[in-house]
Amino acid sequence: MRTRDRILEAARTLFNDEGLAQVSTNRIATELDISPGNLHYHFKKKEDLVGWLLRRLTESLRPFADSHESVEAIEDLWMTMHLALEVIDQYRFILRDVDFLVREYPALVVPLRELVGRRIAAMRAVLEKLRGLQVIDATDEQLTALVLQVVLANTAWHSFENLLPVGARGSVSGTRAVAYHLLVMLSPYVNEASRPYLDYLRGRYAT
């Protein structure tokens, strides 16, 4: 692996595990057993590292922008959502530490907003497709609210989870908790034929 890619991977892991605010470029260099000068040859400042990781997250989520074209049932919707959750979890520090990110690196606010905007558009396209196929039943107002709720859970859960009292966290956490709550959100809108499969999935993620 090239030094540049090693730096990005080490930064991603450390940001995820220890927090964006807590990890310095010197800490990353020490983790890789390279000199700070070597790191700064590839990335002049920490903001550059964060910006490149945001680009990688954006590119990893780009295939989901057209996922509505292949979605025809709850199974398809869930596979799409599950895979997107896995990608987001790999870069969870970006959304978990978003307050620090936008305060310290204002130049990254626009691409971050664009990313969320694409997630909203993609989810709307998927749910509108399923409504047209009568897999879900929702008014325009309900569908708009559901789109925002789903994207909100995708993007804000890791930050929100840090604020939950221990007793309120339930038996699952992290990506599994997001998955469970997404299924609960969808439950009131699915047709009777799809409900048994959705309930089966919800049961899997509840424990």
Automatic annotation (TrEMBL):
<dbReference type="InterPro" id="IPR050109">
    <property type="entry name" value="HTH-type_TetR-like_transc_reg"/>
</dbReference>
<dbReference type="Pfam" id="PF00440">
    <property type="entry name" value="TetR_N"/>
</dbReference>
<dbReference type="InterPro" id="IPR025722">
    <property type="entry name" value="TetR"/>
</dbReference>
<feature type="DNA-binding region" description="H-T-H motif">
    <location>
        <begin position="24"/>
        <end position="43"/>
    </location>
</feature>
<protein>
    <submittedName>
        <fullName>TetR/AcrR family transcriptional regulator</fullName>
    </submittedName>
</protein>
<dbReference type="InterPro" id="IPR009057">
    <property type="entry name" value="Homeodomain-like_sf"/>
</dbReference>
<keyword id="KW-0805">Transcription regulation</keyword>
<dbReference type="InterPro" id="IPR001647">
    <property type="entry name" value="HTH_TetR"/>
</dbReference>
<dbReference type="InterPro" id="IPR023772">
    <property type="entry name" value="DNA-bd_HTH_TetR-type_CS"/>
</dbReference>
<dbReference type="Pfam" id="PF13972">
    <property type="entry name" value="TetR"/>
</dbReference>
<feature type="domain" description="HTH tetR-type">
    <location>
        <begin position="1"/>
        <end position="61"/>
    </location>
</feature>
<keyword id="KW-0804">Transcription</keyword>
<keyword id="KW-0238">DNA-binding</keyword>
<keyword id="KW-0678">Repressor</keyword>
